[in-house]
Amino acid sequence: MTIRVGLIGAGNIGTSHARDLAHRVAGSTVSVIYDFDEARAQQLAAELGARAVTSYQAVIDADDVDAVLIASPDQFHSEQALACLAAGKPTLCEKPLAPLEDDARRVLDAEVTIGRRLIMMGFMRRFDPGYVELKAAMGPEGIGDPLIIRNSHRNEIAPYGLDSALSITNAAIHEIDINRWLCDDEYAWVEVLTGRNGPLTPEGQHDPLFLLLKTTAGTIIDVEMFVQSQLGYEVTCAVTGAMGAAEMGDGAYVTASRALHRGHDLPQQWLGRFQEAYRLQLQAWITHLLDGGPMPGASTWDGYVGAVVSSRAVESLRSGERVA
């Protein structure tokens, strides 16, 4: 059996997902594609042997679509996820579930009303080998409970233009989710600090940002967000545990030394770093749809929590206050 996936959104990440589903994920194919740019949808459909349609609803309603992948711009996710739920179609929704907390809650409530999980959230870092190894290093057989976690998230250039709130709801939401997953804990409060801006920061915006969070168990987490760093794409995560420490990243799994030089090349954007995590996430989703069993990865609840915490972080950014 092959899962026929309908794609909503054929931009950078949607195109990457579609090519993975067609060529690098077992048990899947892409059958129907929608993008607001009809020419882009038609071009990708021709490449993959799919067909292009002129509305997202046409993807959801198609008889030759078994499951839907939402990779449209953030502000459309909740509306499209609700339509997928209404049609009873299993869905992989790129993060965020919604930029706004109330919109995310509507999707959560709709899925609860149905009574079963249909949506898997696209928090792909949960499948990244580096983060998986870091989580495995924690606990009583490893470095112990997490006391402090330090994160950095740097882009060469902001991929969608620099907007400070978007830096939180579109980018830092990854750190919000992955640290919650690492700690198996919820957040008690969040605070966003701003300071001296980088040279490419537009008037009225802030970059870098510094997020400070505390979990209910007391773990302190910080996140450095610098989306116009000019140095390339780099993500790191360092955990200080009760009995040791572990670190993931420095931009790559391995730092090489050669010819009087120590270091490694940095990718320009996130796909260069997390391509394999995206593929593993897609494979887990397709395998679940084929074989059944518990849905892997992040749930609609996780998407809702991400929307709540990122909304509180935006509130802190604007007020300058700590927000619970």
Short description:
The protein is α/β, with parallel strands linked by helices and 324 residues long. 38% of the residues lie in helices and 23% in strands.
Number of domains: 2
Q: Which architecture of the largest domain would the CATH scheme give at its second level? A: 2-Layer Sandwich
Structural class: alpha/beta
**Rg (C-alpha, Å):** 20 Å
Sheet with most strands: strand arrangement: 3-2-1-4-5-6
First-last Cα distance: 47 Å
What is the count of helical runs? 9
CATH superfamily of the largest domain: Dihydrodipicolinate Reductase, domain 2
Overview of this protein structure:
With 324 residues, the protein is an alpha/beta fold. It has helices at residues 12-23, 38-48, 56-61, 77-87, 101-114, 129-136, 164-183, 270-291, 300-319, and strands at 3-8, 28-34, 51-52, 67-70, 91-94, 119-122, 146-154, 187-194, 209-215, 220-226, 234-241, 245-248, 256-258, 261-263. Residues 251-258 have low confidence and may be disordered. It is built from nine helices and 14 strands. It starts with a strand and ends in a 5-residue tail after the last helix. The strands form three sheets. A six-stranded parallel β-sheet has the order 3-2-1-4-5-6, with helices on both faces. A six-stranded mixed β-sheet has the order 8-9-10-7-11-12.
